[in-house]
């Protein structure tokens, strides 16, 4: 009976519970419907203040709008209390604004203003503490212990995008090898090299050479930890504000990208992971906004925390970007510090609150390995670079926090991480520490202007994904080419620095990491070098290309660089070829006999002069001996030139020669030069004038030596008649020079001399040293100084048959005739005389 009653009681209780639940659901439903009805009819916006501040005005903290209300949401301002600063406005824990005065969109929500406590002893400008507290860069009011705690359990918050297939990875590696090509790279990681030589307008033998490197950003996965100094000194000179703006610019440059993640780490006396590795730009920007300056400088802890984040990363490329404004004031304890001391040095020691002094001491050095650091135990009081350790060999030794920071950076670099450092207003010691932390000098940036941080961070962001990093180019000039002294200062680069070694005729270009983007594709970056070259005399010994006239402007030009993964790469540029215009001046001399003279000390001068249309005068005189051939490399301007012979051997003048100037195959002394034209081959030929002399001799007892004899002279030179039947008159003993009315005789001229009126005389002639010939016409080819002698003879002729062998002897006969003649003459005379009587 009792069991039955118990069962009935349980059933009744169950029915009651179910009834209550149904009633509750009905009530909840009615309430939900009521709320929906209310939402449909009005909008309520509520503003609240978190700890450390207030919001106002009071009347605007709750704003309600009906469905038909067109009014705007009134702005509300968050005001921090003393010792606090405003952080941000959040809605449901998500940041919506970092501006203190805020007017949200019109929708039902509650917004909370958040504040953060700060050290009120810090000021907005740097101050120098002249007390025993030392420099105290972070404006601490007293000693503060460092906190070296590292969180090693933080892993990337998101995965990378889809991974490339093995075949795709192979393709990417092949594309990473540099190729010489004029087109832009199209594949991630691809590098292209090009080199061109462009003729300079209006000039010859002068080219502008452009060396260009292009690389397309890699798609390899990349994790970057941005490590930001938030020590008290970062509030000075607007550094923290500029750093935060630069950090956000850094994020926006790299993201969104499925292959890139960024983490934010900040440090003061301790270190904080403000945001783990993510590709969420909003989360990163919120983390950056929440960073505020306060405390000492534990730079080593910031690097150590970044290492642990990257140790948990599976990225192909890992970078640490460290920003700081000065010297570290904390470091990690060292297990055996006296094993890692510098040599004994003499100098000033700033021992913080203990006070500074000058003397002999030791510092811990930069070679401490990770196994010797006593993580997470911190050393230092937050206000100086050095902290006293102990006595060693009668001298003090100090922890040098800067050296320990450098040692930690070395540990990171040895782990394969690329270290970038940015020093802002860091002072000489701070800059030195940070530059030694960097992977190399190309990864160490420095500025005295906080407003330049955004530019620096943008540059670093671009470099991290660049296909070409830490590049250097060695560019030797080719044989026969040089950079004129006046053009060395005109060597230009789009980035990096270039120097010219005139002795080696080589440019060394420290390119760095490609940073300039092309217009068509911002993921393709480039760098270019431009300089001007001309030819010099060494081109005369250079070996031309296969066409026999073109030459390479450069020797083997190489580039050495690291790709996006840090692997060393080497590439080679293809040198352009050009066709120079050479000026050749050649001297030929033919003597009076028509023989070419090739071995003589006689000197001639040839002047080559330009019209100076370009405004640049070319006026050069060259001295040549017979047979000389000078090849000249000094033509520089497109112009019209004239070649003139201006000087002759001693005792000679232009009248002693027939001179011919030929340019190529043309008989001319004028020529035009332009780039691309053939070489200009000038041949100046001198033919020495021979003399031709005509002499007359008359002989014989019966000859009339007063008689004038007439000669007709004709001289031909090929088809040309030099002297056309010219008349010369000579009598016995006369000598005359034969010459044309204009010009001169030349060796090889064909001479004809004819005596016109030698009747009754026997004529003979002799040409030079040749044998005497009978006749009245001499024909010969002129060779050398030539004398033509004509002899006319009229002797007493004997009577035929009156000789000693036939008839009467000649002498007696002659005497007899003479006697008879005499008698007759006497008789006749007398007879005339008688008649006259």
UniProtKB/TrEMBL annotation:
<feature type="region of interest" description="Disordered">
    <location>
        <begin position="120"/>
        <end position="162"/>
    </location>
</feature>
<dbReference type="InterPro" id="IPR051173">
    <property type="entry name" value="Ca_channel_alpha-2/delta"/>
</dbReference>
<feature type="signal peptide">
    <location>
        <begin position="1"/>
        <end position="34"/>
    </location>
</feature>
<feature type="domain" description="VWFA">
    <location>
        <begin position="223"/>
        <end position="460"/>
    </location>
</feature>
<dbReference type="InterPro" id="IPR036465">
    <property type="entry name" value="vWFA_dom_sf"/>
</dbReference>
<dbReference type="InterPro" id="IPR049319">
    <property type="entry name" value="GBS104-like_Ig"/>
</dbReference>
<keyword id="KW-0472">Membrane</keyword>
<dbReference type="Pfam" id="PF13519">
    <property type="entry name" value="VWA_2"/>
</dbReference>
<dbReference type="GO" id="GO:0005891">
    <property type="term" value="C:voltage-gated calcium channel complex"/>
</dbReference>
<dbReference type="Pfam" id="PF21426">
    <property type="entry name" value="GBS104-like_Ig"/>
</dbReference>
<dbReference type="Pfam" id="PF18998">
    <property type="entry name" value="Flg_new_2"/>
</dbReference>
<keyword id="KW-1133">Transmembrane helix</keyword>
<dbReference type="Pfam" id="PF24547">
    <property type="entry name" value="DUF7601"/>
</dbReference>
<dbReference type="InterPro" id="IPR044060">
    <property type="entry name" value="Bacterial_rp_domain"/>
</dbReference>
<keyword id="KW-0732">Signal</keyword>
<dbReference type="GO" id="GO:0005245">
    <property type="term" value="F:voltage-gated calcium channel activity"/>
</dbReference>
<dbReference type="InterPro" id="IPR002035">
    <property type="entry name" value="VWF_A"/>
</dbReference>
<keyword id="KW-0812">Transmembrane</keyword>
<protein>
    <recommendedName>
        <fullName>VWFA domain-containing protein</fullName>
    </recommendedName>
</protein>
<feature type="transmembrane region" description="Helical">
    <location>
        <begin position="810"/>
        <end position="829"/>
    </location>
</feature>
<dbReference type="InterPro" id="IPR055382">
    <property type="entry name" value="DUF7601"/>
</dbReference>
